[in-house]
Known about the structure:
Elements: E1 3-10, H1 15-26, E2 31-37, E3 42-47, H2 54-63, E4 67-70
Antiparallel strand pairs: 1-3, 1-4, 2-3
The chain binds dioxo(di-mu-sulfide)dimolybdenum (9UX).
The site of dioxo(di-mu-sulfide)dimolybdenum has 4 residues, from α1.
Amino acid sequence: DTEQKSFKIEGMTCASCVQTIEKATGKLDGVLDTHVNLATEKMNIEYDPSVASVSDILDAVSNAGYEAHEDI
Ligand code: 9UX
């Protein structure tokens, strides 16, 4: 089964940031789909929680140079 989760992203200022983050999260095992919105500073991810964890996703964004927080 897959799950959808929304994150708040800090530090994006141009459209290339969006591409960087989508690439970094999209290549993670267990991530099926990722969408980043520059205007709303949100990222929506569809992932398989038995393969990828929220902290894997947060780490991928962090390693790409941005800060992500899980939306609650
Ligand atoms: Mo655009 Mo984002 O020049 O880190 S790629 S600001």
